[in-house]
Design goal:
5-stranded parallel sheet, alpha/beta, about 325 residues, 3-stranded antiparallel sheet, Rossmann fold, 10 helices
Length: about 325
Amino acid sequence: LRLKGEPFAVLDIEEIYEINPEEVATRTFGTPENNPEVVKVPFDKKHPGWVIYRSMNPIILAGKYTIINEPKLRPPFDRFWYPPRKAREEFDKRGWRTVINHQTRNVPHVGHEMLMKTAAFTGDVEPCHGILVNAIIGVKRRGDYPDEAIVEGHEMVHLAGYIKPERHMVSICLWDMRYGNPLESILHGIIRQNMGCTHHMFGRDHAAVGEYYDMYATQILWTKGIPSFGFPKPVNEVPYGLQIKPQNMKEFWYCPRCGEIAYSDCCNHAKEKQKFSGSFVRGMVAEGVFPPKVIFRPEVYKVIVKWWKKFGYPFCNEEYVKKKEEELEVDLPHMEI
């Protein structure tokens, strides 16, 4: 196996079989007819993950692989790279017995910060010792924040003291999102459990794009199960299920009546709420307008500006996406075979 033209790993082929890509896509993402609990509308070519699965090579090679030429992460990603063993060692070093994961694909606004702070109050006999931000780094869509701004924006949350550095840690996950909502959340749970996390927060529209799924599809899976997807009980309650525990969260908004960031299940002023809209914040950033402090921490905004100056635009554009797909986040040493 090669990566960027260099030898990367050896695959010991144990099995070769053929699949029907259309059937795999249908069973993975679901249909309104087969999975009425959570699928709202049929998938189409606007859904990137569904298209990827339908376009897969039908010939599958399976077996064990051995990495022979380990990739080296480029700055700034190198300091956020924590494979499972390294992550567990870091948790032990910090004395974290319970750790809750926060998955993200965005630069954090104050709503994200409040989600982390509030979800971390779960645990066992005390709140979770640590909050692990595990940012999804991979193929980007035009209009997304650059990966560099995402990881350094989250790092700034603790560098600026909004969450204590002793309780907050930023890492990356090299994964191209499939936007498979409930079933993809199982993969996310496996990854974070392997890293040593004891809890995983799931918000509205987890791993979702568009309006294909119920906005709380992932939470339905982790609290009730989805029989049509083969889970009569929650993921962590079925035989051989995951051990990581879900912390399902709803919405945070700014309430002018309460004068604070409020949680939807606590605040009774829904008609007056001011939602944290990612598109609204992006609109302000694109116009060069400094978002209000109640929405965006100024230190985090400065991280966006830093990478804006480097790339010439605050969001991913054609040039960034093309360069990203060509160069990736890694370098491999030259190896002769």
